[in-house]
Amino acid sequence: MRNVYTIHGWSFTPLVWKETILANANHIALPGHGESPYKSTNLIQLSLEIGKDLPHQITLIGWSLGATLATLIASQFPQKVEKLILIAPTLKFMPLSQPEVVVKRFLKKLNNNFFSGITYFRQICGANLNNVQLLKEEKARELLKSYVYFSLSPYVKNFPVKTVIAVGEEDNVTGLIGAYKLFNEMNNSKLIIYPKEDHFSILRRLDSLL
């Protein structure tokens, strides 16, 4: 998969793709999530850092926070991204996907005990708890704060790249509403809803998206 690039979600690493059809794709590691050459924890700046490194005519795949970042990259480097696949995306995490009170409670939980907060979050996702030790607390927390307050609305109107949006019917992290609102504002996009899949299990359905 020489021309396929992936961006994982928050609190995970590129290892999340290991058991999927994308195991041999080119995996981008987020700052604070394992070994990453990228420094910025501001989504706009990070999208510019990554976008400059990408070749042309790629398929770019982002999951969760990675979907927001992939959208930003495609909006700023449309000549490089031939196809965009967004898995469990949201137009704006707060308040569309999660109410403000829930987000602030979770940020407080992270401040009190970072790795306990990560464990709690991964359980909500329906994911395994491996490789938590690869996370770097300060950068991971800063990246999350940039994400939860960020809106894609200004970047998806007249969107130049063909996009597939995929979401699990039982996703209780970014959710159906977040994905639908993004689809509703993003022209040139297609929405696919997978029954019985949650925020994490949807990754096993990637073979139907490529």
From TrEMBL:
InterPro entries in the cross-refs: AB_hydrolase_1 (IPR000073), AB_hydrolase_fold (IPR029058), AB_hydrolase_sf (IPR050266)
Stretches assigned to the AB hydrolase-1 domain: 7-201
UniProt cross-references to Pfam families, sorted A to Z: Abhydrolase_6
Domain of life: Bacteria
Protein name (Swiss-Prot/TrEMBL): Pimeloyl-[acyl-carrier protein] methyl ester esterase
Source species: Desulfurobacterium pacificum
